[in-house]
Design goal:
two-stranded antiparallel sheet, 13 helices, 2 strands, 1% strand, transmembrane helix, Ca(2+)/H(+) antiporter, CaH_exchang, NCX_ion-bd_dom_sf
Length: 352
């Protein structure tokens, strides 16, 4: 009962904080961040509970989608404010954060409690194949731009066309995993056997709370991004470093909690679906949506990323792929992924 009251208190505080704006941009950023985090946590916890009604695959998909709402919201407002480099860095940061930090912490947490955790290799292989499509796209566009000097408008037009293709691939991936070959993604053995509950009033209540919290996150994100822009100009802070660290950490808080809780409960398939599924959504859906959105605003955010951004995204993908190719996870593999994330962020600090 107390937990229910806490959720409603947080929602009421969100309404109050949305209308607060002080003369200090740094204080405003801290204020808006402190309310976005609990809202993201509520969304993450609710989607974890909803998975008991709709199954691990759909639950992981919903958790990834709701967890990416802060990134999408802050991406939209960043583009509107002309902070294209921060928006692009935030997308790369979200991808590497999910497949290195979130997965790493989840595997470590689950590995501490369980000596070995097994998962569905078909799910992991399908997810990584979709993720590598997005990484391949980044390499192709960067190579094309390097070998054939094209104007910004040409790259923008090409990016929009490729974005449409990526969204189409993402939709077909959903059709494959949820409908035509859904039997391949069902866990039916051992302790991981799924017991799907019938939908009741609690299910719709959880769904309603997710929608409400998501709306608050969207509108608070506007104020957060506007204040970040002021700090960038006033203190000469790097947009890219803020994008790759701050926004993913704020946006992934709910996902982090959901994935860790699931791994700790030995629901490793759901934990992987949340983390890897989130990276897939960022790369195949959120990024293309933002590219198309910026094109119609004539701001031209493209799919052309810097060489270093491409390298760290590829390293993150390869490291996580090697960890999950055998269908088993151990706590030390989590340490490897977390260490890789720390090294990448330290390196980015000096680049940015």
């Amino acid at each position: 009962m107390k937990k229910i009251y806490i959720k409603y208190i947080i929602i009421c505080l969100s309404i109050f904080i949305m209308n607060i704006s002080t003369s200090s941009s740094i204080f405003n950023i801290l204020l808006y961040s402190t309310i976005i985090i609990p809202l993201a946590v509520i969304v993450g916890k609710n989607t974890s509970f909803i998975s008991e009604y709709i199954g691990e695959k759909k639950g992981g998909l919903l958790s990834a989608a709701s967890g990416n709402i802060p990134e999408l919201s802050m991406g939209i407002w960043s583009i509107k404010c002309g902070m294209i480099s921060m928006a692009k860095s935030a997308l790369i940061g979200a991808i590497i954060s999910n497949i290195l930090l979130v997965l790493g912490v989840s595997i470590f947490a689950g590995g501490v409690k369980y000596k070995e955790q097994k998962f569905n290799k078909i799910v992991a292989r399908t997810n990584f194949s979709m993720l590598f499509i997005a990484l391949s796209t980044m390499i192709i566009i960067a190579s094309l731009s390097s070998f054939n000097k094209m104007g910004q408008h040409t790259i923008a037009v090409l990016s929009v066309k490729v974005a449409v293709v990526l969204i189409f691939v993402y939709i077909l991936g959903l059709v494959f995993s949820l409908y035509t070959h859904s039997n391949l993604f069902i866990v039916t053995t051992g302790e991981n056997e799924e017991n799907i509950l019938k939908k009741d009033k609690n299910f719709y209540k959880l769904l309603f709370e997710i929608i409400i919290c998501s709306l608050f996150i969207y509108f608070i994100s506007e104020s957060l991004v506007l204040n970040i822009k002021q700090v960038v100009h006033a203190y000469n802070v790097s947009e890219e470093f803020l994008g790759i660290i701050l926004i993913p950490l704020l946006g992934n808080m709910g996902e982090n909690l959901s994935a860790i809780i699931c791994a700790f409960q030995n629901k490793i398939n759901l934990s992987l679906e949340i983390a890897i599924g989130s990276s897939i959504q960022i790369s195949l859906f959120v990024t293309p949506i933002l590219v198309i959105f910026s094109y119609f605003l004539n701001l031209n955010m493209t799919l052309l990323f810097s060489p270093f951004q491409i390298i760290i995204a590829i390293i993150a993908g390869i490291m996580s792929f090697f960890v999950f190719q055998d269908g088993k996870t151990y706590w030390f593999e989590g340490v490897v992924l977390i260490s890789t994330y720390i090294i990448v962020t330290l390196a980015y600090y000096y680049i940015a």
